[in-house]
Design goal:
The structure is a homodimer of 311-residue chains. Chain A is an alpha/beta fold and 311 residues long. In chain A, 35% of the residues lie in helices and 24% in strands. Chain A is built from eleven helices and 13 strands. Chain A has a nine-stranded mixed beta sheet, with helices on both faces. A four-stranded mixed beta sheet of chain A has the order 3-2-6-7. In chain A, helix 1 packs across helix 8, helix 3 runs parallel beside helix 5 and helix 8 packs antiparallel against helix 9. Chain A is globular. The interface between A and B is large, with 50 and 50 residues.
Chain lengths: 311, 311
């Protein structure tokens, strides 16, 4: 039997990151990049994206070295890569966008290589909802579709977003986005309203506070975040989470259900915790199954407690 | 063998609570009140505090009905009870203090009844650190001492606070207070710095995001908060947490160690989750062991996931 494949479409970027303690210009980033590096340790990843002539060869080589199929990465020779410059504040959660240059991303029309279209798993990372729909339409019949989005699309492309959400099994978004999309402040009510838009499962990411899963059976799961002493760069944490999450679900023999989604939440949290320990995908590069598994055990012990009784 | 006793000293208050959806004037509150009501379901509570002639008889009767020994509650006939008026904002986390009247609390000199002094467990709820020290000095030899504090004392009574902390086994405080007390922004570093002040165990409360335990063995435990659809009034959540936490540790046969502290964190979270479902101690009143145990199981399922492996 062939191993199942996981297609991701999203941004591939060159970021310029400023944190209170350090700065990294030319930091390779983008939602599809982080997702692919994280998921590559768990399953067979196929990346769809676009870059310009300035995109460094080493980054393509890094993706390839991790087994990512980059045949869907379009390289536009007369264009420049999407660039984002941002500054993190003291709490490492709030950030300010200093510059955004869409460059080749502005006219991006994702086109899936023929052999990608029959893939079993699809993740629509954070890009314009209309492009997410285009990609979905090119797929034959994926078993499971995940999607990430952001406040911008909720504001300026709300109808397009709601259209693509009808095809989605798992939506990941942060708490503010859940409130914005639903119009509900309370997070339980917000999750219910978001599920009514289509996604049977909703993952609400809360940064340093972990993530919540509201699943298709109406159950709630709370995944902790690992308290880390040194957060170097939070960029890509959410995409790395999605990579670990989808990567687990796309493994041979894993059926998508309430139990496997919970395990997926932990692998997502594991990959996010590695991501923030370095700039770019530095910490996602040299991992192996044993290192990931050790951190999975750390997460397990983080929430483990003895069952007790008063009665 | 006699059951162990748990002494709490703290405020007993009449609050005026305004939330975005409702208002409750004359809402009986105070740190010792919430603590006592929550802990009363788990162990033998002895309350030390002060009120004025305006304190309602029904509240004393409610404490008694829950088995709380109120012989340490001083009633000053020519004074009025401590009053606090506060308003919660839309997110139900931020609040603004509108009025504070210390009243009888201004000259409070806690005096423990003779039979309280040999109690095995002591919780110094949020009051002036110097009073916390006075109470500690009146105790013979408690097995375990817990303490809660607030930003005000960290600012204006820092030396007094640091003095009493040397006698404390478990300190509970929120994340902002941990940062303020330690001067460290990162929560792991903050917890370590706070532990160096005396308390071998530090509990960092994060409101709707749960709580973290940094224990005497250097282990970290993350307790989730229950995502609730209707938060009526967050007042007293932290004190109710402390009540459930200390209440578990003060049960016959429970030895204070890393494992029992984790279980205590969950009973604390359980009692906090009940507290916020009503004004004052409304929801903490009619509970029983079975209802508490059912919610304990809800917390267990909230973080439960299958162990899995990549290797």
């Amino acid at each position: 039997m062939n191993k199942p494949h996981l297609v991701v479409v999203g941004s591939v970027a060159i970021d310029w990151i400023i944190t209170p303690r350090a700065e990294r210009p030319e930091s390779v980033g983008g939602s599809a990049t982080f997702f692919s590096m994280a998921a590559s340790y768990l399953s067979q990843v196929r990346l769809v994206g676009v870059v310009g002539r300035d995109f460094p060869d080493y980054a393509v080589a890094d993706l390839r070295a991790n087994g990512v199929d980059v045949s869907g990465l379009e390289i536009v020779q007369d264009g420049l890569t999407f660039r984002w410059k941002g500054q993190y504040h003291e709490n490492m959660n709030d950030r300010t966008t200093l510059e955004t240059h869409l460059n080749v991303f502005e006219k991006f029309q994702p086109r899936l290589p023929a052999e990608f279209r029959g893939s079993e798993y699809l993740f629509l990372a954070n890009i314009q909802p209309r492009l997410q729909s285009d990609v979905f339409a090119q797929m034959q019949r994926p078993r499971l579709v995940g999607l990430d989005t952001m406040n911008l699309w909720i504001s300026i492309a709300n109808d397009d977003l709601k259209a693509v959400l009808k095809n989605v099994d798992v939506l990941t978004l942060n708490d503010e986005e859940a409130r914005q999309l639903s119009g509900e402040h309370n997070i339980v009510k917000a999750a219910r309203a978001v599920r009514a838009l289509g996604p049977r499962n909703v993952v609400i990411k809360r940064g340093e506070y972990g993530a919540l899963l509201f699943d298709a059976d109406g159950e709630v799961f709370s995944a902790p975040a690992l308290p880390l002493e040194d957060v170097v760069d939070p960029t890509g944490a959410g995409d790395s989470f999605a990579g670990g999450f989808m990567g687990w679900l796309a493994r041979p023999g894993v059926e998508p259900n309430g139990a496997s989604l919970r395990t997926a939440m932990i692998y997502g949290s594991v990959m996010a915790s590695f991501c923030v320990e370095g700039f770019s995908y530095d910490r996602l590069k040299g991992l192996d199954a044993a290192a990931i598994q050790r951190r999975f055990e750390t997460f397990a012990s983080l929430t483990n407690f003895d069952r007790a009784s008063l009665t």
